[in-house]
Amino acid sequence: MKTLISTAAASLCCAALYSCASIDSGEHYTSTGEKLYADNCYGCHREASSLHEPKSFLYETIHDGGKNMPSFEESLSEAEHQQIIDYVLKQR
Length: 92
Description:
The protein has a domain at 32-91: Orthogonal Bundle (Cytochrome Bc1 Complex, Chain D, domain 2), CATH 1.10.760.10. It contains 4 helices and no strands. It has helices at residues 2-21, 32-40, 55-64, 78-91.
């Protein structure tokens, strides 16, 4: 009887661990803009809510780059530029 209970408990633990391992760890984004921000901006600009520049400045900086920031003109589409900007503006 003890063996049966131990086997059942071990099976339940294995099933629980397996289901947790299959969950995508933390990449649950509410929008494409949020995902793009996480992938391209978060490394330097931790909090989107701290970016208080005007929309035109955000676009130009993403497109052309800044002091120490590379240009995303070729790596992100115009639509992706806009999705990032929309995400930043919603965080304010």
